[in-house]
Design goal:
510 residues, 17 helices, 9-stranded antiparallel β-sheet, single chain, alpha+beta
Length: 510
């Protein structure tokens, strides 16, 4: 036999044996996932989730990728592994890795004050302004709480959000506590732009998305809806599945604007599992990845379940353990969507679950997949969730039926209703408009709301469609002349009131 032909036959046999080994290993891995399909379909029906997609990574390969349900219920368009969803706050870890790339290039230092990069940066607290670093912002230790009502649903631009940070009331001293803040990621985006000379979107695309072969991943609602396979946003309100409008996150884009699918997010997980390497290309050094992943602060949290541990926060990921195994994860939630990315480095497993509606089915599926992949007895997470929801509903009923012992009965406002009417302004939160409507007041702060008297100078703002859970106290204040000149509302945790000053114009002179 010709020697060349013999070597060719040997090579073919070796290749076939290798493929056989790979297929056998893949079959063994997916054997662990028996029952997953039926579980997901059952729970999606019970939790009334229109669409969902998952991808599982093991040892640098995607071993499972599948869509469930519909991306468009009305048109009966099915979810596939290529269907694009909003990933919301999972964007944050990618922004952090972009800064890590700049650190790798010797252009960025996590510990330098923000003002070294952005001289016009300003917070309300002068000490924080001069000393806060990018690391502090990522670790949510700026001293400024969320203030999400500022950007959410507003027409503010990203520059507007950056410029009004100086008007946000802090509730803690710098580095004294963990307070989740989306808006501070706008500052991180600006640092990337200042150092690189590119927009945040351009830098992310050039340095992360393109090397990771994430060509369908995008940064805007416009790009999302221009694709040929994307999910609509849905809400589940008291058992009614309803299509809703997308929430545009351009004004805090570095915190949550990315849209993607499970196939491409699987590449992101492989990249993380491989210490910054993807398909033999080291995109960011392993040393920097280890630095980013090092736990820095404890997140105030507690769990009744022995399988879960307390959460810590690194420069991009939440770090904890699941059933004794270290796990890195992030969740994201915005109108109509919830997403969770996670990976377990010791077992070289990564999981991404993208879903419609804002509920925790994505998280519960993730836990179940880890149980299966680890070969452990499956924890009844869905049964536990149902029990917790039932308890919460009972508690809600009890609280709702309790008498209001704070309210002072038989009181009335000290002014005529028209005296409360007017436009009230806060430099960050914008306008609150109060109007007299017959024998009552009504209001608007980007959206209309109803108002009823509570006691003395305190009223309640509420949504007619959901009175009990939407109530917010409005307190009116008067000046030394006895004229109504301010109102306050508790719009953010840890701060009792946000003060709005009445605007004096020809319509409401005092």
């Amino acid at each position: 036999m010709n020697k060349k032909l013999l070597w060719l036959i040997i090579l073919i046999l070796i290749t076939l044996l290798n493929f056989g080994s790979i297929f056998a290993e893949a079959e063994k891995e997916t054997d662990n996932l028996k029952g997953l399909d039926s579980l997901i379909e059952k729970e999606m029906k019970e939790w009334q989730v229109p669409g969902l997609a998952i991808a599982i990574v093991k040892d640098d390969r995607v071993i499972y990728a599948k869509g469930y349900g519909f991306r468009d219920v009305e048109k009966q368009l099915k979810v596939t592994p290529e269907t694009i969803f909003a990933i919301a706050s999972n964007t944050k870890s990618m922004t952090c890795f972009a800064l890590g790339i700049l650190e790798d290039e010797g252009k960025f230092d996590w510990n330098r004050p923000i003002k070294d990069y952005l001289p016009d940066f300003k917070l309300k607290d002068e000490y924080a302004t001069n000393h806060v670093s990018a690391k502090d912002l990522v670790l949510h230790q700026s001293g400024v709480p969320g203030h999400d009502s500022v950007w959410y649903g507003s027409n503010l631009s990203r520059d507007d959000v950056y410029n009004i940070l100086q008007y946000l009331e802090p509730s803690k001293e710098l580095r004294s506590g963990w307070q989740y803040n989306n808006m501070m990621y706008v500052v991180l985006g600006k640092i990337i732009e200042k150092i690189s000379g590119k927009s945040w979107e351009e830098f992310m695309n050039d340095k992360l998305l393109t090397p990771l072969e994430m060509s369908s991943t995008s940064f805007s609602i416009k790009d999302l809806t221009n694709s040929n396979n994307y999910s609509l946003a849905y809400s589940n309100n008291s058992g009614e599945i309803k299509k809703i409008e997308y929430r545009d996150l351009d004004n805090i884009a570095p915190a949550g604007a990315i849209n993607s699918n499970v196939k491409e997010m699987a590449n992101w997980l492989i990249f993380n599992l491989n210490g910054g390497k993807f398909k033999d290309k080291q995109i960011i050094s392993e040393a920097i990845v280890n630095k980013l992943n090092n736990p820095r602060v404890i997140i105030p949290s507690y769990s009744d379940y022995k399988e879960l541990f307390y959460n810590t926060y690194s420069l991009g990921w939440v770090v904890t353990t699941y059933r004794g195994n270290t796990i890195y994860f992030n969740t994201g939630e915005i109108d109509g969507f919830r997403a969770i990315m996670s990976y377990m480095p010791a077992e070289n497993i990564g999981i991404v679950v993208l879903s419609t509606t804002r509920n925790f089915i994505a998280d519960l599926i993730t836990y179940n997949i880890y149980d299966k992949m680890l070969g452990l007895e499956e924890v009844p997470w869905f049964d536990r969730a149902r029990e917790n929801i039932a308890k919460a509903e009972e508690t809600k009923k009890t609280i709702t039926n309790l008498p209001d012992t704070i309210k002072k009965l038989n009181t009335k406002p000290s002014h005529k209703l028209e005296d409360y009417a007017g436009r009230y302004k806060h430099p960050a939160y914008g306008l609150v408009i109060i109007e007299k409507d017959g024998n009552k007041l009504k209001g608007n702060m980007r959206e209309d709301f109803s108002i009823r008297h509570y006691h003395y100078e305190i009223f309640e703002a509420y949504d007619e469609k959901d009175i009990e859970t939407s109530k917010i106290k409005i307190t009116f204040y008067t000046n030394s002349n006895g004229d109504v000149n301010k109102l306050s509302m508790p719009l953010v945790a840890d701060i009792d009131e946000i003060i709005f000053d009445k605007i004096l114009d020809d319509k409401n002179k005092q």
